[in-house]
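Troubleshooting: if your tokenizer reports a length mismatch, compare your output against this known-good record of 194 residues.
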Amino acid sequence: MRVEATPRIELGMEVLQTSALPLGYVATRLPTPDSKIPHVSERGFRDAMARVAAGVVVVSARLGDEFRGLTASSLVSISLDPALVLVGLERESATRAAVLETKAFNVSVLTRAQEFIADRFAGRAPTVDWRTLRHHLGSNGVPLIDGCAAWLECRLTESHPAGDHDIVIGEVESAEIGEGDPLILWDRAFWTLH
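Known-good structure output:
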């Protein structure tokens, strides 16, 4: 049985309703910036960044017997040799603390069918119970969510403070490909390519 999200837009992308904003939300047009104004408003920045399409991932970590995870849309490949990725982690998150302490994290690249997982790890749905979430452990002992488009196992190499987040850089020690259309965040809604 194939589960389809509704409503559909047949433009090469498919919109998935997100709990954050109603379908059809359109950011207001901002006036032409005045170069004499040195400050960008928080709303203006959020509206502009919402127009940048990004893949949706769960970054996971392990601290002792406890698993941690958060939804991110800031994963970037930054080097091929060595294989490096960076991701922004909220400064106050338990996942960030575990990554910094253990020097390891994994990335599960979510599929279109995993929107509910993105919402859960973003705090917009009931909290995550790792005991009931289908997952497996990577070779580094950190969880990877089953059924994803891809998985990365990373060793932390650097961390840099950046406002209310930290930029963490990880050397990719293992990369695997799964199946499924990617989950994409654009204009405050979930989409996919097909």
